[in-house]
Known about the structure:
With 222 residues, this protein is α+β, with helices and mostly antiparallel strands. It contains 8 helices and 10 strands.
Amino acid sequence: MTSNPPTEEDPSLFARHINELRAELRLADALKLAESTASTYIDFDGKSGEFRLSFWGEEIHLSYPDFVTVDPETDRALPIAHQALVLYYFHTADETLPSGNWIAFSELPDGRFYNSAFQGYTGRALAQIFQDDVEAFKQAASRLDAVNQPPGNQIPGDMTYEFHILPKVSLLVVFWQGDEDFPSTFQILFDASTSHFLPTDVCAIVGSMLTRKLIKAKTSAT
């Protein structure tokens, strides 16, 4: 992992091990994979089929045993970065369920070593764009079909939205509104069980993806 923001435009960040991931997944039992990933497996002929699951709020299909992810509406393969993200999820996910407890990136395995960089291209980047504009953040989150989570014992901040990425992977974006003494701040949180579903370096890229989606949702509306 580097201190620079991961980008979808650099496919090498994801594609480096994509063939190895596919080769290992072909050895796995399809029904067990479906159970671990909370996806639905459709068996075609006993030798091939497809997994159906939600990805960034949209249904996608993952072929078996080729493990190619397609958009069912267009029948086109997803971009390489998205392909690899789904493969990492299938390769990592076990039968653990999301805990409902939220932690910082620094609390993920080895996350503290990269936390400053992660906060730089996620939380600080969001603060630069949204600043104190609560309404703009609310509208951008709504355009991404996020779920507003009222602050409470487990939900910090003045405004918090939950974004569903994969069946077991959600991210929480927390907004603390500033005042005359302190600027507004943002932070991306992860479910405490996320390490059972994705490697930490892939979590960093998911956080970067979400940040760019939020910024794009705001700028495209202005």
